[in-house]
Amino acid sequence: MFWKKKSKSKSSLVSAPIRATSLPTINEKSTSSGRHLSVSVSQNTQKNFPSPVQTRKKMDTMHGFLVPTYTLHDFDDGEECKVVRMIFQLSGVPFEFKHVHRDDYILEDYPFYALPALEMNERKYGSVLSICRHLAWRYSLSGKTAYDDAQVDDIAEKVFEVRMRIKNWIDHIEHAADHACDEECTEGTAARLLTETLFPCLERVLKAAPSSWLVGHTMTWADLLVACLVNPIIYHRPKLLQDFPLLYLHNEKVAHHDDLVGFLYHVRTRKFQDK
């Protein structure tokens, strides 16, 4: 028996429409409340031969959102707000830095009469930890889970508390201008606080962590805060880190991060003996 070859129907010759999508277009408009960004994409649709060519152009707005404008206020050296500037740098977020002269500013202009302060859409926010916590939430530098985020806060609170206690000693070893030495600079109180309390705690955290970061598998703002404290100590008093290899290597990793070049002292590669 011979079967008749079935011919293709006319309708089967018409192929599906081809859609060509251009690259997204970002439109920016600045206002007093921030930068308004809208992302649009154009799409061309046409049918293949033999149908008449039909082209339809369409511009779809994929997403529209408001990006805050930031102005960071701090004294000329900007040392206290370094961790905030590092967050901006890592996140690729533009900001303006407003230099505040120590002899010419009105303390009442800032929240809780303290600096640094972050002006966001014409509102000012004080406290380094609050600023960091908010920016980290916006730009994915918080803990990835509620538990991890609580641990990040726990570490940050303790590290910042110690930093405030030994701030004068840090200024002393950094040879800060207009620094007046006191008992804290000469009695070794700061060094004992670090080597007997804070550094052992951080070393244990790093030993228990699932990666070389303090919490989880990615960098958080707690890593930046710790690096800002430890880095000048490694540079000026490296012997204080001789019993804390993980903390030393952690600081080396942050200091050599491609997006953070220039923020911290270069950390020399150092070999530690296994205990």
UniProtKB/TrEMBL annotation:
InterPro entries: Glutathione-S-Trfase_C-like (IPR010987), Glutathione-S-Trfase_C_sf (IPR036282), Glutathione_S-Trfase (IPR040079), Glutathione_S-Trfase_N (IPR004045), GST_C (IPR004046), GST_superfamily (IPR050213), Thioredoxin-like_sf (IPR036249)
GO biological process, one term: glutathione metabolic process
GST N-terminal domain segment(s): 68-143
Positions of the UniProt region annotated as Disordered: 25-54
Domain named GST C-terminal: residues: 145-275
One Pfam family, short name: GST_N_3
Gene Ontology molecular functions: glutathione transferase activity
UniProt protein name: GST C-terminal domain-containing protein
Originating organism: Caenorhabditis nigoni
